[in-house]
Amino acid sequence: MPAPTIAISTVRPPAIWLACKPYVHGSLDESQPASVNTLKPPAASESSLDMLYQRPGFLLRRAHQLSVALFDLHCGALNLTPPQYGVLTVLSHAQGIDQATLAKALGFDKVTTLHIVRGLEARGLLSRLPDANDRRRMTMRLTKSGTSLLARSAPGASQAYAELMAPLKPREQAQLLALLGRLCDDLEPHARAPMHKLRA
After folding, report:
1. What is the CATH number of domain 48-190?
2. Could you read off the pLDDT of 98-107 as tens digits, one per residue?
């Protein structure tokens, strides 16, 4: 069966990435010295707690917790979570995609995606309809209410992003995003829920 055509919507959520450019493979300028000391793996003689707190996974998880807390602070009144915001954002760019494509676009597993989609559908924020060419395939579109909620959440999402990145200078922000992008790209083959970014 040929791959389904993805309809790209003209509805765009307000940009929340401020002045930082998205990561493009190879975009990190390695000729410039890093602004922090080169990190080394913790020595075996260090305490297990020291090793724990220096682990990238621990720091990434904590940073994610802080990111979620800031998003909830500014968007919680709209009854919107970061995963729900992600679904609405993807659908605003690609109306008519199916659930499998949505899951891959966000790196979600099937169960998580179904749970989020059903919750948003119950609130009237998106609709699911059988594909005209394949009745077994359910396509999804934002409703007017979903588009409205996404627009109303934009200021809060922007504020949450700004506060998350505020401790870093603009150049450090760009470096952080580039390094995280490289990390995700290089380790993607190990992901339990594969991610395939949609292109506008």
Report:
1. 1.10.10.10
2. 999 999 999 9
